[in-house]
Amino acid sequence: MKQLNLPEYSFRIIRKGETDLILDPIRKKYVRLTPEEWVRQNFVQYLVHEGKYPAGLIGIEVMFKLNKLRKRADILVHNRKGEPVMLVECKSDEVKLDDKVNDQIVEYNMNYRIPYLVITNGMSHYAVKITDYDTHQFEYLLTIPLYEDLQT
Predict the structure, then answer these.
(1) Helix/strand/coil percent split, the chain, to 5
(2) Rounded alpha-carbon distances, angstroms, from residue 46 to 31, 62, 113, 147
(3) In which residue ranges of the chain is pLDDT below 70?
(4) pLDDT score recorded for residue 135
């Protein structure tokens, strides 16, 4: 797989028939290695190793309902009280992070009302902090916050 704009991590990858599988240490199972999954697994490692996010407080492909439709949050980070505090949307490195991707994570966040939102395609990463939901106020962050810096 392609080297991303993240530190390099080691992964357990196996081949089953024609399919490559990667071990997801959060879900504790092998999953199909797609370009989006490659970004997701690398970004989770970034959060755990560089951001000091506790692996036990990270959920991957968390199901939720939005307007009676079933959706999946790529990465959902919780605080130590179990409340969601960061939502991450991962795309393949080939996908441009545009208004469509922004609209998707904003729509997903209507369900959670989480203060931190991140979008990444493994090459570019954008983070915002919602400062006021009622007036739609937010600020762009220059870096992905460390876990200890999440104001929760």
Answers:
(1) 25, 40, 40
(2) 19, 19, 24, 11
(3) 151-152
(4) 84
Domain boundaries along the sequence of the chain: 34-149
Contact 107, 137 (CB under 8 A): no
Q: Is the domain 34-149 a CATH 3.40.50.970 member?
A: no
Q: Which pLDDT belongs to residue 152?
A: 54
pLDDT at residue 24 in the model: 98
Start-end of H helices in 113-151: none
Whole-angstrom distance, CA of residue 116 vs CA of residue 81: 16
Instruction: Report which of 115, 92, 7, 112 is spatially closest to residue 51, judged by C-alpha positions.
Output: 7
pLDDT in tens, 39-83: 999 999 999 999 999 999 999 999 998 888 898 999 999 999 999
Please count the residues of the chain: 152
> What is the token pair recorded at 79?
């605080």
- Please count the other Cβ atoms lying within 10 Å of the Cβ belonging to residue 106: 17
Both tokens of 7, joined, read 């530190």
CB 60 within 8 A of CB 40: yes
Q: Look up residue 142 and give its amino acid.
A: L
Average pLDDT, the chain: 94
